Target: Glucokinase
Amino acid sequence: MPQTLTLVADIGGTNTRVALAPGGAVDRASIRRFANADRPGLGPVLAAYLATAGNPRCEGVCVAVAGPVADGVATMTNLDWTIDRDALAEATGAARVAVINDLQAQGYALDHLAPGSLRPLVAANCPRKPGAAQLVIGIGTGFNAAPVHETPVGRIVTASECGQMTIPVRSEADLRLMRFLETAHGFACVEDVLSGRGLERLFAFHSSEAGRDDRPAAAAVMAAIAEGADPVATATGASFVRILGTVAGDLALSHLPFGGIHLIGGVARAFTAHYDRFGFAEAFRDKGRFSGFMQEFPVSIVEDDYAALEGCALCLGSGNSE
Model:
């Protein structure tokens, strides 16, 4: 009996990854990456992918979207695309179609990641608790997080848009940063700092503080942070890691993820060599009388770039996407 074939896609602000999942498991040899910039929407991307794959019949389609989803319709946060479940069903002919937030997909993928793809970042003072809540934090083109809960009826991953929360302010410098960011659209949110574009804005702030006006792209900022010769780049890296630690700690206190916190996304991975250098663990645990309590949450980095695709396949098979 032939295996049921599912089409899965992970749609970020910059790229879309598409794959086939026969029998509910992603065929990694089938993964293709498409740049979003020159395409008007998801339809042409899926059509191009299916054409190169020989137009196979797909019984199910699940797409993970970097943006809020309501009633099967997703609006991208950092891309001018709208993705509609009914339109996807019509375009692909699939009987089952799901549209979920990309961080939800990452949550479903936990425990199904490629071997060796979890890099420990902050150790806990006790063993990881099986069945405990977990938390996925995504830092890439945008910022978001999703709590992961195990229940008697299976895994539940709830959506959020916590990248739009107000940035934490604990000093006069933080207040100046908030005022600097507010000039863009009247509100300073976490994503304005903790993302690829946020890294650029954070550098611009420190450049302004130093009486400079240079505004390099995120890749150049990361290169300068690694080189360590530019004090503005060093200040930018230190601020990024400190704010990320603070926000991750706040989210940990909100969701109590004793099963672990997992950082995912290109920017999260790019900072791997700098978390210790700039004191991520100290910022994460800096919660006054709850600082000791924060030692119960382990933090790791997910180095599997295709985890969201696995999560899509698992989500559609679980029935939680309906």
